[in-house]
Hints:
The protein is α/β, with parallel strands linked by helices.
Amino acid sequence: MKDKLLRRLRWLLSPPPAPPSFSAGKKRCAFVTKGGFSYANSRILEELIRQFPEYEVESIDVSDLLQQTKLLCFINIFVALWEYPREIFTRIRPLRECFYLTDLIFDALKRAMAARVGPGTHEFTLQTQSLHDFSVPGVPHFVYTDHVHLANLRSPAFDPNHLLPAKWIEMERSIYENASRVFVMTHLVERTLLEVYKCDASKVICVPAGYNTAIPTEIPPEVDANRQPRILFVGVNWKRKGGPQLLDAFLQIVERFPQAKLVIVGCNPAIRHPNVEVCGKVRIARVEEEYRKAQFLAFPTRIEPMGFVVIEALMHKLPVIGTPIGILPDIIHEGENGYLVAHDDTAGLAKAMAYLLANPQKCRQMGEEARRVASGYTWEASVATIRKEVLEIIEPALV
């Protein structure tokens, strides 16, 4: 807590960053992000720079734009408390999340973006996620997102009482209306935009995401041979990702498989059990190490925008046991590279885990298929599709 307060105080007292310098005569574009996005933003930026060599890519984070409106940020804390008291005080959403959901900050960030980007300086803009509208009149704008708010209603575990107010939904809708193209990471989000938001079908394109960990070109046979009966869970939000249900299912089978371990990476649930290893938040290199040691990934998520860890696990030759939410129905082929169980079905989850623990050879066969299926999910392929669509809008004569 003390470190967070010190970071925020330093941010408040620090001067706005100096405008970046650019090469004379080179075309420019802007890549707009908010935080790391599970390491995806840095990987996408790398590919943008590589695949748009004729453009100078300016990376803009929301925190950069907020630097221009520090007094307004202070005021907005009280606005968020006024507009979202139920969410904040019942802990449905923390204050830091509600801070970004006010119309005050929505409009302020749009103005700050317009002051930074314009028709005379940038050829196009691309933002990841759909929290704000960073479109600027006269500049073709593209959105690449893993989630839209009303897609929550298609998750059976979502409580409709947790929906954001209609005013926010209308602000969100403007993000898609003002975009030249909306790239989405899953077919679930694509269907939601077409059927619920009534977006123009010609604007919505499904562009699957890539994996964010470093994965060797080939996984040596000895890695597969040395895999242990370790059931891996990777996720920051233990409850939303189905962690309690996973623990319940694991405890149903642990006596039959006394050598099995449930390894939890990314969060710190208060669990004390000799067969449960809680790693907490670790560096990405440690996550990669756990992928190499595990027998399979258990990811019984209850509400899921995307699920990058599923692609990463499959690429590491891990079968995945999950739920039909987010990207999982797009990439998990029943009985071939994993299994899908209904959310909160702990008996079904326990049965699938027990089968894979009892059949390590079958697990290895499924791992081969897992890597084959996931091999097409790369940021290189994703950004190549985005480049084609962008150029059709901004330079149609060259396509």
